[in-house]
Amino acid sequence: MFAHRIAAFTGPGDVRWAEVAEPAPGDGVVIDVAAAGVSFADLLQTQGAYQMRVPLPYTPGMDAAGVVRSGAGSGGSAGLRPGQRVAVLVPYGCWQEVISVPPERVLPLPDGMSFEVGAAAPLNYLTGLFALVRRARAQAGETLLVHGAAGGVGTAAVQLGKALGLRTIAVAGDETKREFALRCGADHAVLADGWLAAVRDVLGERAVDIVVDPVGSDRMTDSLRSLAPEGRLLVLGFAGGEIPVVKVNRLLLGNTGVLGVASREFFEQRPALAAELWGRLVELWRTRALADPPVEVYPFADARGALRAIADRRALGKVVLSRITGAMIPVDGGAISSI
Fold this sequence. Notes:
7-stranded mixed beta sheet; Quinone Oxidoreductase, Chain A, domain 1; Rossmann fold; alpha/beta; disordered C terminus
């Protein structure tokens, strides 16, 4: 089979399309991959900049969707069977034609959900649900502000905010992304340049109850200023490249809080929570409270192109590699090799 392999932490340019051995049947569930998600975390991993360094060489990819081939046991919240359509959430390893994963990492796909949507949902949407429901204890009617609202995590937060009954304001980097956030369900969308004043124009005397921030950098101070008493700022990452520092007297004076959201690490410790949240996510999707995640689909062999779209801030929504769309051939100079 073929897989994308990383032999050095040098970024997207050194992703290799390599021939490797298929996983042997064993304790894991063997799955034929139809589509795999691509995230900002994957980009950081290829650069050696992610909080968890994986051993080299390795295959990237934290979420995927496909069909169970063998090794079915009890995974997630339901039993598995050969031929069943499933999604997976793992630390890495999804960008290959066949994967083997522990049963507790397997999430049943509902009827009618495409493989591309199934691959787009686990990492970003479980993270968004974990952030809003578990960490922030969001209540219907509260006001939600989402930074980076046109990206994978931001789009998930916007759509979940709508599904959970929150009034959602999106912050986006340019006009194209602002309009995209509105199409994803944001009640209001403002540009990142001068966003705090624009949000105050929208809200009037009211302040923000919850901020979702996957950007970090210089936005944190104004995010704290935007919060209502007992407001919560959720830290999901640092796509802006800089880890900000909080002056805790702001929290004291405003009766506000800053909450870390490291969902993947939490799910590693408590996989049953991932299955529980997946069940809630599927129910929101089945009842049409939650729309399909918007995806940008790349041929499965074009991991380089997918990663570059994220690195260049061109991607809208979740980026997905698909074996259904496009030929299974190397692209952009990604030579076939054997490992």
